[in-house]
Amino acid sequence: MAENKVILDHIDDAGEQAIEAYQAHGGYKGLEKAMKQMTPAQILDEIKISNLRGRGGAGFPAGIKWSFIKRDAPGPKYLICNADEGEPGTFKDRKIMTSKPHIIIEGMIIAAYCMGLDTGYIYIRGEFFEPYQAMDKAIEEAYSKGFLGKNILGTGFNFDLHTYLGAGAYICGDETALMNSLEGKRGYPRLKPPFPAQFGLYGRPTTVHNVETFAAVAPIIANGGKWYSELGTPKSGGTKLFGISGHVERPGVYELSLGTPWKEFFEDIAGGVRGGKKLKAIIPGGSSTPVLLPHELEGMLLDYESIQSKGSMLGTGAVIVFDETTDMVKVAYRAMKFYAHESCGQCTPCREGCDWYYDILGRIYHGEGRIEDLDTLEDLAKYIGPNTICAFGDAFVTPMLAFIRKFRSEFMDYIEKGKYGLQAVLDAEKKSEEINHA
Amino acid sequence: MAFSFNESSMNEFHKWGKKFPENPEGRRSLVIPALWISQWQNGYISKDVVNYVAEITGTEPLHVWGVTTFYTMFKREKTGKFFLQFCTNITCTLMGADQIFVNTCKKLGIKPGETTSDGKFTAVEVECLGACGSSPTLQVNDKYYTHMTESEVEKLIAEFRGAK
Fold first, then answer.
1. Closest approach of A49 to chain B, Cα-based (Å)
2. For chain B, what is the domain count?
């Protein structure tokens, strides 16, 4: 099995950002078909048949999400593209935005038409200034061609689309925090229910999708839901972008049919572990998904169900590869530093829990761990995840517990050998550095 | 001295104004864009900026300050002309970013977060920049530099030093 390029088709061609190049490769054909030949109900059916699931991490079926919106309800209704890509290990949306922005815009217009939404926002993280400029330029082009604005393609349908620039907050990747941010507030997640479909941006019905989800919409409409669904497995339809990074021979973004065997992706496409070293572990879907050991990867397929059956998650499809020289205590400590920095502070269990986790992992890493520390972390976990407004609590507790359970002996080495153990690790690091530089 | 938008900032602000509903809620949505425009003009968010942004968005200074402190990219003090932001998250650190960061600080003669005495460079550690496939990643002001090594960073710094 090789790559299966639907979204990434022609993405590396020079000039694919421009609307002319995009149209020359069939761009905006899906939109024309949707608006001229199909009813909103037919579009919704195709999306349902396609089995498209949200690509931002949670995997919620898109067709079901769209059906929550009452098309004919009066008053403003909003469509939001979540481009706050920040899950460590994830770098797919940035590629789509900078290299093929029109596929996102086309998908958004089709979605807006299907659900009867009048205004859209693309919420781009503040660090993505270049993608933000690329999207702005593409939106301008789409307006000038009559794909956005009033009376689109002569159908009488109006839709305005704008970019928005975040300012550095991982939590704004949570759709309700994102909407608060878009409303000019601190990015605190909201308690659900009510869900965005009833009470979203400015309290109005709102649909939020990840960049990649929107990017799949136009190809689905152009080629049919059945075609897309059959690219994947019966339960996980279509293709998915996978970003692979870390100790891997060929890091990058790849588009694969869901259900592609892990082994083929990792060994044949991504080239396996860098420098012929042995594999120690991987994180399959961004830093918030539990780490997997080589034996757990046996027979694993890249789809929602198979990865879940191994005790982890497909997440954002962000694979991080660790070779045999990796210090997993250091990885866990660094990942925890991220969560401690990014907890929004709204819920006490998460705000305090993050700091405790970070402190405890820090003292272990610095050779001052206590024998009871790992049990303390296990115990603390019970009080964090279930007691927070959003998923952030679980998002750090679950992967941290996986690190300490699966690499318990490494953590115990740090704790029992203290400074001495640390010195040994530092020496080993120095050695591997020398080898790398040689 | 009181802060206010210059002409180009004001034009930019009006451009943003068209994106949101014409009501108090829509105006409040302009807080973050107004803070960005202020930072592009002023370099950082001062108390005067906060008061000004509150005034033009119809919000309270306390609200604007709350927003400012929530988002990491809003600077509350002046930084160097070249704001070096080293990603040291998981993948970048696997590829050596933590060492590059520490050693670059040493070479610049500053501690993490500090600015060089000539006001040219500030070096900070940041969280995942979303460019893991070409790590280690360094963001200088708005621009990404990928596949960084110590010598690449050194070259960049020399280049920036020569720049006006």
1. 32
2. 2
